[in-house]
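Recap from last week: sequence in, structure out.
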Amino acid sequence: MNNKQQAPGVGVVLASQLAIVLLGIAGIWLLNVSLPAATIGWMLASIFGVVLAVMTFAIFLLVYRFGGRFAQTLLTDLQRVWGLFAGYSWIKMVVVATLAGIGEELLFRGFAQTWLNNYLAVAWAILISSIIFAVLHYLSYAYFICAVLMSIAFGIGYYLSGSLLMVIVWHGVYDFIALTVIVKYRHFITGHTSVH
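Predicted structure tokens:
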């Protein structure tokens, strides 16, 4: 009975993530956005992306564990997110996280930040694209703040490295870790071994 409720969610999530990938590619192509040259190679970009993803999750884990009322709001948000992804298999989580990393970074860093930086100072380009990113991820004020800060971190990483691959890996691996914990190991965040 739970599977009937979750099946449409899988299709909607995958379709929306695929649409974001296509939107990012279309924006780059239609507006002829010239992506910067990466200052690091693909292997280093991949390693940095994984390390930054793990560090980012560790920071959020500390916030969830010791963030007081702010953390409680985030945990309430995660309960809603868990409902969307409950029962996801490992392969579904990999696909969703991969598409989110590729699509959202193509759209917000590759397209939006790079395009805005043609007209505005890089700080404004990062901030504006990060606010848009956070608005589209809005669940609560706490989640909004976290999304803005995370997007700013992605934006700075992209600006400093010029590597879209690095932020794609960073974002995708972070999302995979977060999904894994939310779906399979929620006690890491809540501190409770039993969840319902």
